[in-house]
Amino acid sequence: MYIAMVASECAPVAKVGGLADVVHGLSRELLLRNHALEVILPMYDCLRYERVEGLDKCYSNLWVPFYDHWIRCDVFSGTVDQIPCLFIKPFSQENFFDRGSFYGEHDDDARFAFFSRAALEFMYKTGRQPDIIHCHDWQTGLLPVLLYELYEPLGLDHPRVCYTLHNVRHQGVTGPHILQQAGLGMHLLAPEKMQDDVHPGAVNLMKGGIVYANFTTTVSPRYAEEIKQTELGHGLQATLHANAHKFGGVLNGIDYSVWNPEVDTHIPQQYSPQVMAGKFADKQALRERLLLQDKFKPIVAVVSRLDPQKGVHLISHAIFYALANDAQFVLLGSGSDDAINAHFHALKAQLNDNPDCHLEIGYDEELSHLIYAGADMLVIPSAFEPCGLTQLIAMKYGTVPIVRATGGLADTVFDANHSDRPYEERTGYTFEAFDNAALENAMGRAIGLWYKYPRYFHQLRLNGMHADYSWDQSGGHYLNIYQHIRA
To answer: Which DSSP category does 383 fall into?
Structure first.
């Protein structure tokens, strides 16, 4: 099968969040299964070019329609971790991808609508006929619309489209001008097509992707139900219900060649479920690096963006609850909100001399590996979480997750006390309410087990380490979807 993966991100060259990891991990899995695959990306000026091998121009003078004129583009090819990638570089006064950033521009709608059209124009001009075009989030939501409205009649009639929603809080709601820019008709501003369900005068790019794609997925089964049935759909509930026959949740995987204590080169000592001594050596190394005192205490950690979605008020509360209950606490995180960053910098100053606490405001990839390896518990108190990767990583490293039961967190972490699963499948602690009392209940149970029943706590570690959340599982589900829509 030949798959064209069209996205705004792919780790490690263009990464803002989990979308980049999914595009990278799923692409690698499909290549390992001997499918032909190309990832198509914008050629941002802020790409990590040092991670692209063999970057070279492969197509010149690709002219792409934009309103009443055409914009010239070149296309470059290269490989990223053995993944074949194509990068589209436009030349115009708009400087679409020469802004020093991936997102956050006033004309993001125009930038990514242009990219979606350019990707299809490139396939059309080069005679590419992928079996599957797999596109992601609102940035490529216009692509299925363009394919079936404009390019299928021109002969690009072989591809079928799989469309994945990573976070429906961001839907690409914009004005009708975007249809004019892309060469589409105003007939699409209709309730059953691209008209936004909340703002009738607006165009919703994500809705267009859902309506026109052959199948739409999101990144966990629980999140699929939440966005269809609750306010977490942010206005898309009716559209998802109308398209329920071609919508489902597929849990993200993680790359065990990167996140695996048996092979991780970022940690002082590697370890496995059979030989766990290295984990306790890594705990000691974490204490030494962060200047924590060497005492018989569990280490509770948070590795997270500091964002309202992640439950920042509960993260703050977790710090003081852990310290008051004979645990040490480590935080690694930063956010885009100045007030939230200032709050955590103030906490850092307040707790600077506490020998049981270290707050690292920022992001450090190497340190994150050491925290996963050295911590005993990881707290993830999210307001919502489409899938979540940190709980999957924590489990692989024998670090027991304490999570709010939402989205992918509820699909992957099974409570040590209350789950209906067999004990050998229970992997952590969960809580339902989005408040301090619920968090304290889960943390108290986890810390209590660590002190009072260390043998049972060790078994929880091993249960998580034995769970399989590799891309092997998720890749198989996606291939079944691809074959279904091809049939």
So the answer is: S
Q: Which residue is associated with the tokens 């570089």?
A: 89
pLDDT at 335 over 90: no
> Which tokens go with 158?
């072989």
In this structure, are strands 299-305 and 377-380 parallel, antiparallel, or unpaired?
parallel
Predicted structure pTM score = 0.93
- CA 292 – CA 286 distance, rounded (Å): 8
Where does 277-469 sit in CATH, by number? 3.40.50.2000
List the structure tokens of 35.
């499918």
- Candidates 145, 153, 217, 223; CA nearest to 184 is 145
Which tokens in the block code for residue 4? 């064209």
Give the three-state DSSP class for 268: coil
Side-chain half-sphere exposure of 35, counting CA atoms within 13 A: 24
Contacts for 265-269 with beta carbons within 8 Å, 24 or more apart?
266/365, 266/366, 266/369, 266/370, 267/369, 267/370, 267/373, 267/374, 268/370
Kindly report, residue by residue over 393-438, the tens digit of the pLDDT. 999 999 999 999 999 999 999 999 999 999 999 999 999 999 999 9
In whole angstroms, give the CA distance from residue 266 to residue 174. 43
> How would residue 252 be classed by pLDDT, with cut points 50, 70 and 90?
very high
- Distance separating alpha carbons of residues 158 and 28, to the nearest angstrom: 24
- The domain ranges of the chain are 2-253+472-486, 277-469
The CA distance from 190 to 375, in Å, is 52
Q: Is 386 left (phi over 0), alpha (psi -120 to 50) or beta?
A: alpha
Token pair listed for 412: 């992957």
> Phi, psi (5° rounding) for residue 193?
-120, -100
Q: Looking at domain 2-253+472-486, which of 3.40.50.2000, 3.40.640.10, 3.30.300.130, 3.30.750.24 is its CATH number? A: 3.40.50.2000
**Which residue bears the tokens 């492969």?**
58
Contact 438, 381 (CB under 8 A): no
